[in-house]
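Field reference: "sequence" (input) and "structure" (output). Example, DASH complex subunit SPC19:
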Amino acid sequence: MVDRSSRLSRLSMHPRHPRESVFVGNPDLYRGDSHAVCSPYLRECVEAMEDCCDEARAVQEIIREGTYDLPRMARVLENERVFLLIDEKTVRRYKADLTDEIEPQINELIARAEKGLQVLLRRESVLQAKVEAAQSRPSSRTGVGVNTAGMSKLEVRRVQMLARQRERLEDELAALQKEVDDLELSQMKKR
């Protein structure tokens, strides 16, 4: 196993002894004030700082121990297939549970699909009847089909006005029929 202390950064290593002085001689010679008094709490502050550094180092070691194997574990867990061996009894039990859970929903979806199919079949038959009726009668759009040769201008205008009124009413009837069909379809979807 590789020595973990070699992996620690230089800044995270807590020195166990005080650093050497940067002064060539006695540091007291370099003090500007020979009567300087240090705070009595300075030692406690230094000890508290050392405790914090020790705690930080311990936490860092714990984190490193927990994560040093992360790259290898990530490669192992990259696999898409994971095999788990279980007995047939457990498989049958889970299959039965899944069937009990899903079957009512599937039955409801089938019933809704059948109702929707019935609505569509009815619409198809209505549309087929409309097509047959439109093909069997003479086209109302091309003209009235009335011989206007012996009529006065007033009678011809009246016939044309009635023809336009008939066309408008047929359009309204078709729009109302479409609205009824849409309402039936939306009612089926709500169920």
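Residues 88-136 form the longest helix (49 residues).
Confidence is low (pLDDT under 50) at residues 1-6.
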